[in-house]
Amino acid sequence: QVQLVESGGGLVQPGGSLRLSCAASGSISSINIMGWYRQAPGKQRELVARIDIIGKTNYAESVKGRFTISRDNVKKSVYLQMNSLKPEDTAVYYCNADILTQTAAWGNYWGQGTQVTVSS
Q1: How does DSSP classify residue 53?
Q2: Which of 4, 28, 44, 104 is a plausible cystine mate for 111, CB 3.0–4.6 Å?
Q3: Contact in structure between 31 and 95 (CB atoms under 8 Å)
């Protein structure tokens, strides 16, 4: 009954910006770490950014200074602001979260993935 729903992906030119959103819903008691991952063609899935319950963040070196992760605990949402986009940022982006359900069970959940394409 727990779901992560993503939005904001699409096609953008090099140097442009996109903002990804992910909202959690269902029988949720608490959300710990939330993050964004991506997988490009022919490559392994990699961590892009993550944020803990008090707002501490970590970023991949390739996106540091260009991307910003944030969260809203009231809305149960996590966001990824992507600026100065490069063709090598092209990938399927996935939302991820550690969630405690109302039945007191911890689980790791994934969004369905959204395509980001950076091309002229």
Answers
A1: T
A2: 4
A3: no
Supply 104's token pair.
């007191």
Q: List strand residue ranges (DSSP E) for the chain, in order.
A: 3-7, 10-12, 18-25, 28-39, 46-51, 57-59, 67-72, 77-82, 91-101, 106-110, 114-118
Can you read off the two tokens belonging to residue 82? Answer: 């992507």
- Structure tokens, 115: 């395509």
> Is the C-alpha dihedral spanning 87, 45, 9, 19 positive or negative?
negative
The residue type of 99 is: I
Please state, in angstroms and rounded to a whole number, the distance separating the CA atoms of residues 48 and 43: 14
Please report, for residues 23, 68, 100, the alpha-carbon distance to residue 110 in angstroms, rounded to integers and kept in the order given: 11, 20, 14
Q: Give the residues across from 78 on adjacent strands.
A: 22, 71
Query: Tokens 């993550």 correspond to what residue?
Result: 50
